[in-house]
């Protein structure tokens, strides 16, 4: 193992969970539950930026534009699910894209995620313009496919937001709105950032709920919620 990789793993090591593998199952779960409380605090610190995202996205949609949400791997699945749940019938101005297309929703396609040019091509295929808005989901901020799409949106002068754990990453440098919840080290080093992904999902849920309220879809919130529940139940999810 290289010294740089060792140093990186040391930096990410959680000081309070080094003995988690020796705990009884109930104690292990209690430790994980306690650690997850950081997620809500981290998201709470980002509320002003989340509000800006909702306001700009609402303005974009009211002018006839679209909000395009993109990501690779787990982030891409979050994008697709958020758009689908927002309106199962698909009659709205939200678009979800995942690196590698719909098949990647079931199995990751790293080749696509690592293709910078493909990210730009995906937006071009949508006729993405400066009337639209791009929201990029990328925990690391370094995914080439996401960066390529962001660079294309940036070249058009479209508003861009990013949800990432790395506020100084390549992706963040292209964004007008940077939402960077600091959830701290993972309880188990080497896992695929479960706390960061949960924070990302919470923020995206806030976004879609906020948009639903702002664009009048929730004049009767109970009715909107019940319709989503019925549609979700029929699809077996």
TrEMBL record:
<keyword id="KW-0119">Carbohydrate metabolism</keyword>
<dbReference type="GO" id="GO:0097367">
    <property type="term" value="F:carbohydrate derivative binding"/>
</dbReference>
<protein>
    <submittedName>
        <fullName>Glucokinase regulatory protein</fullName>
        <ecNumber>4.2.1.126</ecNumber>
    </submittedName>
</protein>
<dbReference type="InterPro" id="IPR046348">
    <property type="entry name" value="SIS_dom_sf"/>
</dbReference>
<dbReference type="InterPro" id="IPR001347">
    <property type="entry name" value="SIS_dom"/>
</dbReference>
<dbReference type="GO" id="GO:0009254">
    <property type="term" value="P:peptidoglycan turnover"/>
</dbReference>
<dbReference type="GO" id="GO:0016835">
    <property type="term" value="F:carbon-oxygen lyase activity"/>
</dbReference>
<keyword id="KW-0456">Lyase</keyword>
<dbReference type="Pfam" id="PF22645">
    <property type="entry name" value="GKRP_SIS_N"/>
</dbReference>
<dbReference type="GO" id="GO:0016803">
    <property type="term" value="F:ether hydrolase activity"/>
</dbReference>
<dbReference type="GO" id="GO:0046348">
    <property type="term" value="P:amino sugar catabolic process"/>
</dbReference>
<dbReference type="InterPro" id="IPR040190">
    <property type="entry name" value="MURQ/GCKR"/>
</dbReference>
<feature type="domain" description="SIS">
    <location>
        <begin position="57"/>
        <end position="217"/>
    </location>
</feature>
